[in-house]
């Protein structure tokens, strides 16, 4: 599952699935069997859910057939020469930052989707540090939702195979070690942006008194993909739409609603939240300013 041939997002989903499998062994966990595998001749580029899932990856809350259809929900990405593509190009230039700038450094951190790291992106905004030991239910909800939200983007990703901006312009990114894989993984919609917005929607529901700050952080998480030069603005917008569609579908699932209720109760108990340090939050705030 950690193969270099896997797209970055699918590799990260595999990391989330490892936690989901472990949680299923505990009394608090729910059984997560292997996800359905679609068969068929794989196309060009790395494997994906339109061809074959990584072997043994547990599902989230939804089966593949229940996932929102990104190909049906999203319009085609902007065509070259269109006004929408001109906006993409303009935004690409506007979001560029020097590699030693605080915003670029923060974007580099946001690019890391390993759950133990990625979930901490919302600690300052939510006043809660998602932790597998202290808040296992919250951690499980975010991990399982991560699988559903991430997989929901791949039907359109694989259909359009949109070229990423760093490839189109011959530039580099904030993750040079991932560039070879990113070159073959479709840009539209943005999986990172979908995950950031989906996590923000979940946390805003669980911590409503901090919803504005949480949603701002979810927005900034997607904008980091523009700073990293790996997505166009329309990719990011489409990713957020897929996150909203997936969360709407998740609310129809009793298991998801039950876990949300359990996570809300978990956060209400004293000693579980472990707020992040003032220093860490000051550093993050500086890194999110578009200077």
Description of the molecule:
This protein is an all-alpha fold and 291 residues long. It has a single domain, classed as Vanadium-containing Chloroperoxidase, domain 1 (Up-down Bundle). It is 55% helix and 0% strand. It contains 15 helices and no strands. The model is unreliable at 1-5 and 25-47 (pLDDT under 50).
How would you classify the helix and strand content by structural class? Answer: mainly alpha
Overall number of structural domains: 1
CATH class: Mainly Alpha
Separate helix tally? 15
The H/E string reads HHHHHHHHHHHHHHH
Question: How far apart are the termini?
Answer: 38 Å
| Unreliable residue stretches | 1-5, 25-47
Largest β sheet strand count, sense and barrel closure:
none
Number of strands: 0
* CATH 2nd-level architecture: Up-down Bundle
CATH superfamily: Phosphatidic acid phosphatase type 2/haloperoxidase
Give a brief rundown of this model.
This protein has 291 residues and is mainly alpha-helical. The chain is built from 15 helices and no strands.
Structural topology:
Elements lengths: L7 H16 L46 H4 L9 H13 L6 H9 L4 H4 L4 H4 L9 H17 L1 H7 L4 H5 L9 H4 L8 H16 L4 H17 L5 H18 L3 H15 L9 H11 L3
Helix pairs in contact: 1-7, 4-12, 4-15, 7-11, 7-13, 7-14, 11-12, 11-13, 12-13
């Amino acid at each position: 599952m950690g193969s270099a041939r896997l797209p970055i997002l699918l590799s990260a989903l595999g990391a989330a699935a490892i936690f989901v499998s472990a949680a299923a062994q505990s009394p608090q966990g729910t059984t997560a069997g292997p996800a359905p595998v679609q068969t068929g001749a794989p196309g060009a580029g790395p494997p994906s859910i339109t061809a074959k899932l990584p072997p043994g990856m547990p599902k989230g809350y939804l089966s593949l057939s229940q996932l929102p259809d990104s190909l049906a929900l999203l319009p085609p990405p902007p065509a070259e020469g269109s006004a929408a593509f001109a906006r993409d190009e303009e935004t690409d230039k506007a979001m560029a930052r020097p590699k030693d700038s605080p915003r670029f450094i923060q974007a580099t951190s946001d690019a890391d989707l390993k759950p133990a790291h990625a979930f901490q992106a919302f600690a300052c905004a939510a006043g809660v540090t998602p932790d597998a030991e202290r808040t296992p239910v919250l951690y499980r909800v975010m991990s399982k939702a991560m699988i559903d939200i991430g997989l929901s983007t791949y039907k359109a990703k694989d259909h359009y195979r949109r070229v990423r901006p760093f490839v189109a312009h011959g530039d580099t990114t904030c993750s040079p070690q991932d560039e070879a894989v990113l070159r073959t993984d479709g840009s539209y919609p943005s999986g990172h942006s979908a995950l950031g917005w989906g996590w923000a929607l979940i946390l805003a529901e669980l911590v409503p008194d901090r919803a504005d700050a949480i949603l701002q952080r979810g927005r900034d998480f997607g904008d980091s993909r523009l700073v990293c030069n790996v997505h166009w603005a329309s990719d990011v917008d489409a990713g957020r739409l897929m996150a909203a569609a997936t969360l709407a579908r998740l609310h129809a699932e009793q298991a998801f609603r039950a876990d949300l209720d359990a996570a809300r109760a978990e956060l209400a108990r004293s000693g579980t939240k472990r707020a992040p340090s003032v220093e860490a939050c000051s550093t993050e705030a500086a890194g999110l300013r578009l200077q």
